[in-house]
Specification:
It is built from two helices and six strands; from the N terminus they run αββββββα. It is α+β, with helices and mostly antiparallel strands. It has one domain. The strands form two sheets. A three-stranded antiparallel beta sheet has the order 1-2-3, with no helix packed on it. Strands 4-5-6 form a three-stranded antiparallel beta sheet, sandwiched between helices. Bound molecules: zinc ion. The site of zinc ion has 8 residues, from loops.
Length: about 100
């Protein structure tokens, strides 16, 4: 088993692991400066959602993030995928704020 074969599997395994720990809802997205729960369509300030964990991954375009989040309204636990392109503008500020809450 080489390192190059191992790396992408680790990301997939990590996401599968998060889903297995209960983060298996439809997930979350970032829209208009808010974190939106795709189960109940509620928009939340980043400070209102629960942050259970975060993974970083690298693509040719830069660094992406996967957050394990919990909705304060409907209690759904799901994943927020933010690719390298999401780091631009206000969405990047939300990603930074969510990351800071894990420290
Ligand atoms: Zn919800």
């Amino acid at each position: 088993m080489s390192e190059t074969e191992r790396a992408p599997a680790t990301f997939t395994e990590a996401v599968t692991e998060l889903e297995a720990t209960g983060y298996d809802s439809m997930g979350f997205s970032i829209e208009d400066g808010a974190v939106v729960c795709l189960e109940c369509n509620a928009a939340h300030d980043q400070g209102a959602v629960g942050v259970g964990g975060m993974l970083r991954y690298a693509t040719g375009a830069g660094e992406g993030h996967v957050f394990a989040l919990a909705c304060p309204d409907c209690s759904a636990h799901g994943l927020l995928f933010a690719g390298p392109e999401a780091m631009a503008g206000g969405t990047g500020d939300i990603i930074d704020a969510l990351t800071a809450r894990l420290r």
